Amino acid sequence: MSETITTKATEATVDENRRSTKRALPALLAIFLLGTLMIQAFNLVFQNVGDSLGMSANASLISTLPGIVLGVVCMLYGTLCDYISPRKMTLFGVGALIVGSLLGFFGASNFWAVVLARMIQTAGGQVAGSVFLVMAMKYLSDKERAFYLGIFNAVYYASSAIGIFAGGLITSIDWRYLFLVPLVSILLIPPVLKYTPDTGVRGERIDVFGIALFALIAGFVAVYFSFPATWMLGVLAVLILIFAGYVWKGANPFLSRGFVTNGAYMAVLLALFVFYFFNFACVPIYNVIGDRIYGISLSQVSLCLTIVYIVATLVGCLSGVIMNAMGRLPMLILSALLMIAGAAGSALMLTSGFWVLTVLASVFIAGITMSYTPLYDSFSATLPVDQNGRGIGIGDLMMNTSASIGMAVYSGLMANPQFGSHALAGVKTGIQAQAANMFWVMALAALLALIIVAIFHKAMSANAPQE
């Protein structure tokens, strides 16, 4: 009798968490959108900001340092969602987003205050995104999860489109007003308080040492690819060895031995790494093409990129429906094929007009967007429910680290004159050849993603292990 009562109580709790989650997700999405659009807006205008503050040489720090913070907190927040109440975490994030916005606006005359404000904003805005993903994984059914993962991805690209458009628009007035946009999140505190589940793992010790050590490793990786130095590789190797020893010998590490030896999960991470390798390079390569090949203004480029991200938003909205209809594997194959077509087509038609390249960029970004839902849905199929937060956190870290490495590769190749010394027919040597060759490299990366899916598709389709 008591077992029946306990089972009914558990089912009632699960149903209540599911209902609360579905009510909380719109507010979480809106907060995530407000934080993420700032990333793309400042990625577009950071040079303008640096120039206006007399710090042109250091302007890139407005973009790179928040990017480093993002890579670390993605892992940190996802992991903490396995232990700490989603409601408390979200309120912390909104508070940081508001503090960063006010600091940036009132400290806009000081370059370093602007950099610090952007780091705080980035850290605050990401909390809602991490909580959204973990709640969707833990509390929603398979079909609901696929739908909301698609919506989440759509919101990411919608925020990119809004951010690019807002960056181009507000910069023509006064860039400091960009900092005030996220203050809208104040209006979303009531629904967060009302609907976000106040659940947590009572009595379970948070592995502070292990999480801090892993965050330090993540930070070093992000810093290295933004500011490379040989000595960092040595420090990174030592930290990784210490962490490996801790996982194997520690009493209760937050990443168990079974977690790090989960071949199916690692296969999904590998695919995620390759699919998103050139995600951050999409914007700057079209800025270069627009400016140096077609001679069009930044506002025109931002308009075309806004269209590209609107396409990505629409694909994201439909990706959950598409995955439920065709399954993970066919969707990943289609994603890789679209990326190959978009990148290779851009290389072949580089001089056919900027609007043609805009269409091909839409094809490429549609491929990246479409891969998100099946890849993240695979996390729930390869990990126990109580490890979903850690799985998503490390997945977010992998995605951002991959894109950061890809950005470093992109920057290195585009800065090397030798990369443009050879060109195919119809493309001149120099900047045209550099852009075309870069697109061929992006197409090869997409082909590698397709090969990885073909090799590891069985592992990606495995059922979640039970504890």
From TrEMBL:
Q: Specify the domain of life of the species encoding this protein.
A: Bacteria
Transmembrane spans: 27-46, 58-78, 90-113, 147-171, 177-196, 208-225, 231-251, 263-286, 298-322, 329-348, 354-376, 397-415, 435-456
Which coarse location class applies to the principal site listed for this UniProt protein? Answer: membrane
Keyword Chaperone assigned: no
Residue ranges of every copy of the Major facilitator superfamily (MFS) profile domain listed in the record: 23-461
PROSITE patterns named in the record: MFS (PS50850)
Q: How does it sit in the membrane?
A: Multi-pass membrane protein
Gene Ontology cellular-component terms for this entry are: plasma membrane
The biological processes this protein is annotated with in GO are: proton transmembrane transport; response to antibiotic
What name appears for this protein in its UniProt entry?
Answer: Tetracycline resistance protein
Q: Which family does it belong to?
A: Belongs to the major facilitator superfamily. TCR/Tet family.
Function description: Resistance to tetracycline by an active tetracycline efflux. This is an energy-dependent process that decreases the accumulation of the antibiotic in whole cells. This protein functions as a metal-tetracycline/H(+) antiporter.
What Gene3D superfamilies does the entry give?
Answer: MFS general substrate transporter like domains
**Pfam families xrefs:** MFS_1 (PF07690)
Q: Where in the cell is it found?
A: Cell membrane
GO terms, molecular function:
antiporter activity
Q: What keywords would UniProt list here?
A: Antibiotic resistance, Antiport, Cell membrane, Hydrogen ion transport, Ion transport, Membrane, Transmembrane, Transmembrane helix, Transport
